[in-house]
Automatic annotation (TrEMBL):
<keyword id="KW-0472">Membrane</keyword>
<keyword id="KW-0456">Lyase</keyword>
<feature type="active site" description="Schiff-base intermediate with substrate; via pyruvic acid">
    <location>
        <position position="173"/>
    </location>
</feature>
<comment type="similarity">
    <text>Belongs to the phosphatidylserine decarboxylase family. PSD-A subfamily.</text>
</comment>
<keyword id="KW-1133">Transmembrane helix</keyword>
<keyword id="KW-0444">Lipid biosynthesis</keyword>
<keyword id="KW-0865">Zymogen</keyword>
<feature type="modified residue" description="Pyruvic acid (Ser); by autocatalysis">
    <location>
        <position position="173"/>
    </location>
</feature>
<keyword id="KW-0812">Transmembrane</keyword>
<dbReference type="Pfam" id="PF02666">
    <property type="entry name" value="PS_Dcarbxylase"/>
</dbReference>
<feature type="transmembrane region" description="Helical">
    <location>
        <begin position="12"/>
        <end position="42"/>
    </location>
</feature>
<dbReference type="InterPro" id="IPR033175">
    <property type="entry name" value="PSD-A"/>
</dbReference>
<keyword id="KW-1208">Phospholipid metabolism</keyword>
<feature type="site" description="Cleavage (non-hydrolytic); by autocatalysis">
    <location>
        <begin position="172"/>
        <end position="173"/>
    </location>
</feature>
<keyword id="KW-0594">Phospholipid biosynthesis</keyword>
<keyword id="KW-0443">Lipid metabolism</keyword>
<keyword id="KW-0670">Pyruvate</keyword>
Length: 205
């Protein structure tokens, strides 16, 4: 499956291939390489969240590079889970739990290496606050050295189910998830996770 944000680029290359076929077949074949790259870059595989409704799932594909207790000015005391997305990972981001978006804020910034802790405070980023049945959570999409565009389709008031797509960061980068106190983290530093599938937290019983 291809993410809808990649369809214009894929369509443009297909159109150029068709035109090139009438002029030069070798040129048309050469354009197959950019087409294959775009199909791979914008891949958007289906993901199935775990059956246990108490589990929160990862918002991104990648590796856990931060795990610490913080006091966020919007959602309060939280467990911060920082996930580094390499250019080779799937770039689509997903909601970790069901809820309603109540906060949205874009902050321009620099392009530090995304796995550096300072990237969370200095890089270009988009904050998405989600009100869940178990407390308020915060998702932060952070642009990195290569990433040039943050995309999100999560306006204030929109509702999402666990595992729903809500945005993407082109060429990877980093996503920070702030878990509320009612959710116990399940991941470890260095662990690989998949968006919409890997449990990153569980509601405390």
């Amino acid at each position: 499956m291809i993410n809808r944000h990649g369809l214009p680029s894929v369509g443009a290359v297909v159109f150029m291939m068709a035109g090139a076929w009438l002029i030069s077949r070798p040129l048309s074949f050469a354009l197959a390489l950019p087409l294959l790259f775009l199909l791979w870059f914008y891949r958007d595989p289906e993901r199935r969240p775990p059956e246990d409704p108490a589990l929160w799932v990862s918002p991104a594909d990648g590796k856990v590079v931060e795990l610490e207790q913080v006091n966020d000015p919007v959602v309060g005391p939280s467990t911060k889970v920082g996930i580094f997305m390499s250019p080779l990972d799937v770039h689509v981001n997903r909601m970790p739990f069901e809820g309603e978006v109540f906060h949205l804020r874009y902050v321009p910034g620099r392009k530090w290496l995304a796995f550096e802790p300072k990237a969370s405070e200095n890089n270009e980023r988009l904050y998405v606050g989600v009100r869940t049945p178990h407390g308020d959570a915060m998702l932060v999409q952070i642009a990195g050295l290569l990433a040039r565009r943050i995309v999100a389709w999560a306006p204030v008031g929109s509702r999402f189910s666990r595992g729903d797509r809500y945005g993407m960061i082109k060429l990877g980068s980093k996503v920070d998830l702030y878990l509320p106190p009612s959710v116990e983290p399940l991941v470890k530093l260095g662990q690989r996770v998949k968006a919409g599938e890997t449990p990153v937290g569980v509601v405390r019983r």
